[in-house]
Amino acid sequence: MSMTDELLGERSVTQLAEMLVAADPGSSFATTRQAASQLESLTLSERARAVARAILRDVSDDRDHLSRVVRSALQNDEFEGWVLWPVGLAASWSAVGAGSTAAFDNGMDLMRELTPRMTSEFAIRPLLLHDLERGISHMREWSNDPNWHVRRLASEGSRPLLPWGERLPLLVQDPAPTRPILDALYDDPEESVRRSVANHLNDHSRAHPEFTVSLVRGWQDQGGTHVERTSRHALRTLVKRGDVGALALLGFPPAQVRVSPIHLSATAVPPGGAVRFGAEVTNTGDDPANLVIDYVLSFPDSRGRERSKVFKITQRELKPGESTRLETGHSFKAITTRKYYPGNYAIALQVNGVPHERAEFTITDETSEEK
Questions:
Q1: Any idea what the CATH number is for the domain that residue 351 is in?
Q2: Element (H or E) spanning 351, and its range?
Q3: pLDDT at 337
Q4: What SUPFAM superfamilies does the database record attribute to this sequence (predicted)?
């Protein structure tokens, strides 16, 4: 049995239908039973949507009926697990379809009630897409809930780029509405909540690095038992990029260094080839320097536009006047996630987020190689 079948397959959905009937003996949930046997070719999220639609047909899109059934089913301790994803999704769609603030608030309440049994992070998305401001207002209150599952939902459910979840475009554009939630939970006693906060802020970091650095700086100023670990996890994408502000927060501020000109093993590299390069880094300051040393590869994309990507090399601590010699290389063999095109390239060392002098070379055209 595949993992998808285990999580949301014919057997589990049939059991779900039986639990819904037990919660509402006057209904047969025949459509839900039928949907259980029609899932084989669907992905997990497609299955959740298919079963949610079946549940809504079984209650004739009656929001009050669905709410009563769900709350009755919650009295059963076995009403839990991945089968609650479509249940929550049906409740969310139903609340949005009703169009009233009362229905919306009831839908949000159902998300909170369901999430200790199975996270409502996916099911809540239609509600937030419908009325982000009102939804975030509920979630700010949840950040103080005694149940850690609910506190986690406040953060995870409002992530702008939640994997498997619908994007929240307004939060992609403006991260400010979720800041109070993240500030309330960054040092939560439950690790799952803290990890959600870090992942949430890492989502924001992709489009809003300054916002992310500002938030983490505030956490560090405020302090907390777990602030350093949460900070590192939240800043991981910015660290990979060599962001100056993020590196400074993690103990790698801009340093007084001298970087020698990069020596390249070749200035013309054949397609699929590699280049070796080296340089010397010297601490010219009066204090020891903690250094994160990366290299920045500049390269043409398929349209000839210059792009760049940061690659990690090492971390070093240098005493005043001390030098370190670095030797490494880069392969231009095509991989599934990256293709290299002929044209002008450059490599520069980057120390604590600050790039230094570039060394230029070319990837030759395969057709010219054949002549």
A1: 2.60.40.10
A2: strand 343-351
A3: 82
A4: ARM repeat
